[in-house]
Amino acid sequence: MTDLLGTKGVEVGDTFPSESELCAHFGVSRTAVRSAIAQMEGRGFIEMSPNRRRKIRALPTERGAS
Q1: Separation CA 13–CA 5 (nearest Å)
Q2: How does pLDDT run across 15-66, given as a tens digit for each residue?
Q3: How far apart are CA 51 and CA 65, in angstroms?
Q4: In whole angstroms, what is the distance from residue 9 CA to residue 7 CA?
Q5: Handedness of CA 19, 20, 21, 26 (dihedral sign)
Q6: Residues 55, 13: contact at Cβ < 8 Å?
Q7: CB under 8 Å to 2, separation ≥6 — which residues?
Q8: Taken in order 38, 26, 57, 65, is the CA torsion positive or negative?
């Protein structure tokens, strides 16, 4: 899922896709998406904003980081 952060045009401060958008995009369950989001939050890539949407906090320094 961190591949989304390496997409051209993605910048720190952008809104991260919703859980339902990610489920549809990757064709996986909400449980899988929540697990991946938790890992990304733990690594400091995304964070919950005050308006209850996740924002991109940092971009991976390596391509292909997962």
Answers
A1: 11
A2: 999 999 999 999 999 999 999 999 999 999 999 999 899 999 998 875 444 4
A3: 28
A4: 6
A5: positive
A6: yes
A7: 40, 45, 60, 65, 66
A8: positive
